[in-house]
Amino acid sequence: MVYATATxxxxxxxxxxxxxxxxxxxxxxxxxxxxxxxAHDHAYRQLIERGRGLSGWVYALxxxxxxxxxxxxxxxLVGHWAGRVAVWDVVxxxxxxxxxxxxxxxxxxxxxxxxxxxFRIAQRADPKAKLHINETGAEGIGPKSDRLYELVRDLRAxxxxxxxxxxxxxxxxxxxxxxxxxxxxxxxxxxxxxAITEADVSIKLPPSAADLRAQARVRRHRARLPGDQGVPLAxxxxxxxxxxxxxxxxxGLRRGDDPG
Length: 260
Prior knowledge:
By secondary structure, the chain is α/β, with parallel strands linked by helices. It is built from ten helices and nine strands. The chain has one domain (about 1-250): Alpha-Beta Barrel (TIM Barrel), CATH 3.20.20.80. It has helices spanning about 5-10, 30-40, 65-80, 105-110, 115-125, 145-155, 180-190, 210-220, 235, 240-250, and strands at about 1-5, 45, 50, 85-90, 130-135, 165-170, 195-200, 220-225, 230. Residues about 1-45, about 225-230 and about 235-260 have low confidence and may be disordered.
């Protein structure tokens, strides 16, 4: 199963166990965000953020305090939205560029087993929700995606309730990595869902008409995904048409012009 979640919708949720010391876990846009989520079947991110976005005082927690904070945060947040949020990114961006686990407070104080623990806590809080791990820079086969693959394979082998893997796909006019499809295939072979959770095709601003044509070619690229599904990149990556319209205007193109 391959699906996409729009970037701007995914990035609205609270992201770390810091909520424990500030009272009950809360979503900044609470019920309005949940209604939007029900309608669009989207994922709120993320239950455990890996370093970036963590409040400084989190680093001062000892092992016992951090374990308690993490469990309470996940239990409260997932439990509050139970039945209304379809997919959670339980752990976000845990892998370094060289293929190791990031040395965050979670890794240093709780050990690598905290990832499996987080998934199990989330599953107990809402047994019907899909639980994903999310990563950036792992689109092609390499040290980072290899380590992610090993992690997911290990979690699945141990019976950890991980349902899917999210890939943030940030590409340029050069297009996707040549190993993109093979990479997704091997993850799908583990029995997990594949989610394209973020996507963009970067170009310099102001763009030229040639840049827009090249961007459109990347967006139209058809990736043969597991199950032999032909999914247009523009659809699979959930790219924003408004952004394309704005870029047309910046390049002096009329709305009816086809940049490809």
